[in-house]
Design a protein that fits this description.
This protein is α+β, with helices and mostly antiparallel strands. Helices cover 20% and strands 30% of the residues. It has one domain. It is built from one helix and three strands.
């Protein structure tokens, strides 16, 4: 597997507890900057569904 390029939101530039995402042609990888060795792998369809759910407020408490 090729090395992943991790990105984080600009609001987290100097923070230590941020989500990080790496996108490849086949998958999206998500991790926390606090525990970078634990990575979740999503399909592109799962990623689109997750982002759509976040934007639609499905996870708001």
């Amino acid at each position: 597997m090729e090395p992943l390029t991790w990105n984080r939101p600009s609001a987290c530039a100097d923070a230590t507890n941020c989500p990080e995402v790496a996108i490849t042609d086949d998958a999206v990888y998500v991790r926390s900057s606090l525990l970078p060795s634990s990575t979740a792998q999503l399909t592109l369809a799962e990623w689109r569904d997750l982002v759509a759910g976040i934007r639609n407020g499905e996870f708001d408490v």
